[in-house]
Amino acid sequence: MADDADQRAATSGDETSRKDYELVARSWRRLALSYQFASHLEGFLDTDKKLLRRIRATGPKRP
């Protein structure tokens, strides 16, 4: 989607349309990064929850 908007911006005949397509391309890329971040965060939190459950089940380590 972003690549398509970039291509349309590059071939646009007027400045307003070009800027609009560039904005659309940036918005699609920002959305993709947001989804990627959310996915990584979800994985991190899932791993953190598993670790916390394991610690609670085994108790704290003492020297």
Helix-and-strand structural type: mainly alpha
Estimate what percentage of residues fall within beta strands. under 5%
Shape: rod-shaped
- Helical residue percent? over 70%
> What is the gyration radius calculated from CA atoms?
22 Å
The pLDDT mean sits at 89
**What is the oligomeric state here?**
single chain
- Report the biggest beta sheet as strand number plus sense, adding barrel if it closes: none
Written as H for each helix and E for each strand, in order along the chain, the element string is: HH
* Separation, N- and C-terminal Cα atoms: 56 Å
Low-confidence stretches: none
Number of helices: 2
Number of strands: 0
Structure description:
The chain is mainly alpha-helical and 63 residues long. Helix content is 86%, strand content 0%. The chain is built from two helices and no strands. Helix 1 runs antiparallel to helix 2. The protein is rod-shaped, with a radius of gyration of 22 Å. The mean pLDDT is 89.
